[in-house]
Amino acid sequence: MAEAYICAAVRTAGGRRNGRLSGIHANDLGARALDAVVARAGIDPSVIEDVIFGCVTQAGEQAGQVGRMAVLASGLPDSVPAVTIDRQCGSSQQAIQFAAQAIMSGTQDVVIAGGVESMSRAVMGSNYLPGSGISPISDTIKQKYGVKGFSQFVGAEMVAKKHGFTRDDTDAFGVESQRRAAAATEAGAFKDEIVPVEIVTPEGEIEMHTVDEGIRPGTTKEALAGLKTMAEGGILTAGTSSQICDGSSAVLVASAEAVKRYGLTPLARIHNLTVTAGDPVIMLEEPLFATDKALARAGLKIGDIDLYEVNEAFASIPMAWAKHTGADPDKLNVNGGAIALGHPLGATGTKLMTTLIYGLKARNKRWGLQTMCEGGGVANVTIIEMA
């Protein structure tokens, strides 16, 4: 089977809800990542055979095939096709896997995988037509699972309870995510992976957005302890949940033949692609079992992996993942996660892959594993080997 290589990876710095990136249309935000990843790869954009873009809230400005619109807003030629996919939080991680599958099958040689989410401008849930009385879940499904609907908040609390975590445990995890993100920013760990985005401030000044806006240096357990829980009787709060975020990201995936033909420099080889599904009620626990399957298929053990990126949708998820797999906490989300850096839904998959690659590169390490929980009880796992 042909090998698939990631030859460039970029992300924007995250923007808070109604923050520094909120004035940018999602098409233009996505285009910024596309242009940057092409520039980083040093490739003629006309040879790109497809763009696979993740986006979850495909409504308003993100409707109408936002992947193709991002291409049209970019410097890529009109001849480059695109498709927009929704695998909930794993949308752009799935985009990587679809791109790799195209390369490995020999169908295509150069594909961009990426994603965008402007959660300020296309509000989460707006594609559900709120107030219309229309539900995306049929009565058949509700009766089958004995629920009125599926809730990620409920699922996150169920995971916390099942694995025996306390409020103190999750608050400590939230503090550590903020500490690591602040330390990484201070040390310049994100400098090479972030593509600057030109913004206009409320004062009318032009600036470059280069720093993740959601980081709260100096966060303490005492401060988090004062926050209200999201659910009555629960333990998770806004301080132990992913931040609403605006952002885009992209990676360029190429075959060995394309690497040679176009003089590309591989960053990493895609070693394993796994996707599994399970209980849609507890929903967010699936990364645990998906990782078991991925490692078995790859012939690796958790101790073989040098760094892990496990999306911090809620603190209970990476905590349960680490407990289940026996992963070393010191290798988990070493530069912080979505609790501090934000979770721009459809862009998070390629965002985390970018951070994983640069984290491995900085440490001269070999193996990386990325996974995340997704609505409906689905999870993706991608294992890479640095080139």
From TrEMBL:
GO terms, molecular function: acetyl-CoA C-acyltransferase activity
PROSITE patterns referenced in this protein's UniProt entry, alphabetically: THIOLASE_2 (PS00737)
Keyword Transferase: yes
List of catalytic residues: C89 (acyl-thioester intermediate), H343 (proton acceptor), C373 (proton acceptor)
Domain annotation Thiolase N-terminal: ranges: 5-256
Pfam families in the cross-refs: Thiolase_C, Thiolase_N
InterPro entries listed in its UniProt record: Thiolase, Thiolase-like, Thiolase_C, Thiolase_CS, Thiolase_N
Annotated keywords: Acyltransferase, Transferase
Domain Thiolase C-terminal stretches: 264-385
Keyword Transferase carried by entry: yes
Listed PANTHER family: ACETYL-COA C-ACYLTRANSFERASE, BLR7806 PROTEIN
Family: Belongs to the thiolase-like superfamily. Thiolase family.
Name this polypeptide is given: Acetyl-CoA C-acetyltransferase
